[in-house]
Amino acid sequence: LWGQARRILTPGFSQEAMRVYHRAMQSVSDDLTAKWNDLSDVSVHEDMTAATLEVISRAGFSQSMGLLGEPAQASETKEFLSALERTLDWASQSSNDLPIVGWVRGRHAKPQLSRDVAFAQNYVDDLIKVRRRTGVARANGGEEGPDLLDLMMNSEDPETGQTLPDENIRDQVLTFLVAGHETTAALLEVALHYLASAPTVATTLRSSLDAGSTTYESIAKNRVLRAFLSECLRLWPPVPGFFRVARTDQNLGGFEIPAGRAVFVLALAAQRDHKVWGTDASEFRASRFIDTRITARSGEFFAPWGAGPRSCIGRQFALHEAAVLLSGIVANFDVDLVDRHEPIRMRERGTLRPEPFTIGVSRVAMEG
C-alpha cells in the first residue's frame, strides 16, 4: 500500500507540478506580506505554522485553511491544529518516557489523545467527502492540472492498476499536513533567526533577488537563496536523524553490527563533522554550498531529507515553498530579533524546531 501511494504521488512532486503549485505558494507569500504590513513585532512560530499549513492546503487540496486574514473561516482549522500539536507533543514525550512514568502518563493522556486523533481524522474525512461530492478540483482554480488530492483519489497505480482506499488517502493527507508543515516551518524559523541575527545576510539575499520578479524560474534558479536554506538544514535539520537496520553482519567504522541490529544515523552531528566540513563546521556559512557541489557521493554527509527509497517525497515542494516565502519576506521587510542576544534554542517535538521567538519587522525603505 505504501508503494502504491508512492508511485501514485510521485508525479505530484515533479518539476512541472512545482510550476502549478507556485501560484498557490505565491498567494500565501502575498497574504503574509499583507499581514506583516500592519505589524511591528511578529510571532515567528505562529506565522510560519500558519503559512506552511496554508501552502499545503492551497497547493495540495485547492482550498484555504483561513489562517492568514480569514479569522471566521479558521475556527475549525485552529481546533484541528491544536489537536495535531497535542498529538505531536504526546508522541515526543512518550518516546523518551521511563517505563512506569510513561505508562502512567499514557493512561492519563489517552482520553484526550483519542479525541484529538478522532477529530483530525474526521476533519480530513470531511475534506475527502466534499471532493467526492463536488468532483475534480483543479489546483489553484486553474486549468493547469490536478492537485495532490486529485492524484490520490483518481489515479491508478501504474503497477497494480489499483486506486488508494479512502482510509489511506486520509492518512496520506494527515502525513502531508503534519510532516509537511512541521519540517518546513522549522526550516523557515531557523532561517529567520539567522536572518534577524545578521543584517548583512539579508543584504546578500536581497541583492540576489531578480529585480522583484516572483516567477517560478526566478526563485527556482536563485542559487544564493538555496545555499542559505541548505546551510540552515545542515546546522539544524528538522529531522535530526534516521534509523537503518543491518540486513547482514556488518563492520561499520570498526564496530561489529550484527544482522537485524538497528543503527541510528545522527545527521545533526554528522553534518557538523569538522573532519569533513572543516574547522568552521559549527559556524553558519552559506557560501560553502555555492563553492562546492555536495552530492550523495561527496565526502561531506548531508542528508536532511533522509536517504533511500523512503526519503522525503516532498523535498522539492518544501524547498521551493521555503524559497518563495523567504524571498517575499526579504524583498519586503527588514527583520531583527526583539532580543538581539537571544541564541537559537531548539526543542524536539516530532521535529527539531526552534523554541518560539519574536522578531521586529519594518518595511524595506524604497529607493528614491
Please provide a written account of the structure.
The protein has 368 residues and is mainly alpha-helical. It has a single domain, classed as Cytochrome P450 (Cytochrome p450, Orthogonal Bundle). 55% of the residues lie in helices and 10% in strands. The protein is built from 14 helices and 9 strands. The protein has helices at 2-9, 15-36, 44-61, 75-94, 99-134, 148-154, 166-197, 199-208, 216-220, 223-235, 267-270, 274-277, 288-291, 315-332, and strands at residues 41-43, 241-245, 250-252, 255-257, 262-266, 333-337, 346-349, 351-354, 358-363. The protein has a 3-stranded antiparallel beta sheet. A hairpin with a 1-residue loop joins strand 7 and strand 8. Helix 7 (166-197) packs across helix 8 and helix 7 (166-197) crosses helix 10.
Overview features:
10% strand, Cytochrome p450, single chain, three-stranded antiparallel sheet, 368 residues, mainly alpha, two-stranded antiparallel sheet
